[in-house]
User: What shape does this take?
Amino acid sequence: MKPAYSGLVVIDVDGVIYRDIFLRRIVQSKGLLSSLRILSLGVDYYLNRIPLDTLLADGYRLADAFEVRKAHKIAGRIKKVANINYTVDVLHDRGYFVSLISAGIPDFILTNLAAEIGADHSRGMNIEIKDGNFEVGTIRIISKVETVEQLLGEIGLSWNEVVSIGDDPNNIELLKRSGLGIGWNPVRSVREHSDVVIEGTDLSEILPYILPEESLPKGIRKERYFWKRELFRKGVHLLGCFFPFLARSNKTFAVSLLGAVMFLYIFSELLRSRGIPYPAVSRLTRMARRHTEHGGIITGPLLLGAGILITILLFEFPVYLPAILTVAVSDALSALVGRRFGTVHVFKLRNRTLEGSLAFFFSALGIMLSTTPVRVALPATVLATFLEMVSVHNIDNLLIPVGMAVFIKLMGGALF
Assistant: This one.
């Protein structure tokens, strides 16, 4: 007999549906000391110093005698990802069964959330309630794999037809067993066991990976999300144009500012790669991350910052201006043109196209002709284009500004 459903989509809640952690929010509402304790437990968990059952047991003890009514209010105020109801509706229209499973959120909270977003099933942790308050005793972690196994028997599906979405290590076994495992803003260990990694805040981004292209709603294509990220990424790239002019006005301040930004970026990325989000910077890097970047830290911005910083420190304004403008403008333009219009691959083993390289060459030539003598402009542009074509792993963000600055200095050419 044909199954009643096309597949089962299992969604974690903390860190996926909720953009915060439910337990952390209720404990933080009890004051500063409790906030510091739950923060410490969270760091220990994500650094693999304590298991999940210890995190939940100690965390919920901090929330003992918490009012259920207040817990519902806090859950309702937690910010959620975008397009939840729309995504669930699309999955239902395509015949999918949707389940919310969480090891760290009480069942009564999940029941309300499932009703709110239209999920078919939910399962959370059991917490005793007495006189309208939590009564925390022994915390038992539900097994997501066992829960899904039971659910599959009820709806007549197999593990190959399961799509699971999670972010923390408690989801690893589920992701490994599923036909498709999607890591959602995942920590490093989860990333390694995910078939797809999505960094974002829009749940509809899962749809192109679950549904065949012909059944996707209008406007929901991988390219939509790709270009949203790529345009944002290159917008950040263009911010590099600001630093040579700032450095001309106040070199010490420009170097200090860029150094501080790079330090904050590294610190944020180290935390984010371990599942500890750092406000603002982590969100920006998630918005810019490509799906092909499965490593822990996004190196592109760091290498760009290093290239600009080194060039400003070692050279004077007439030399570092064209070098930095080229990497900020031409490299961004090359990537956008190459990905949108590129058809002829210059190096089959590298993500470089003739169209993108031509966009780089002519835009760089325009910059060079505006800032250096003609005798310097053409060979410097050829050098920059070559570096852009042969570089891999974003190393061109470093090689282009430094290499061009060295070349321009040696040629003794500058108009300013």
Q: What stands out?
A: The chain has two domains: 7-220, 223-411. Residues 145 and 173 are 7 Å apart (CA to CA). Strands lie at 7-11, 96-106, 121-125, 128-130, 133-135, 162-166, 180-184, 196-198, 345-347, 352-353.
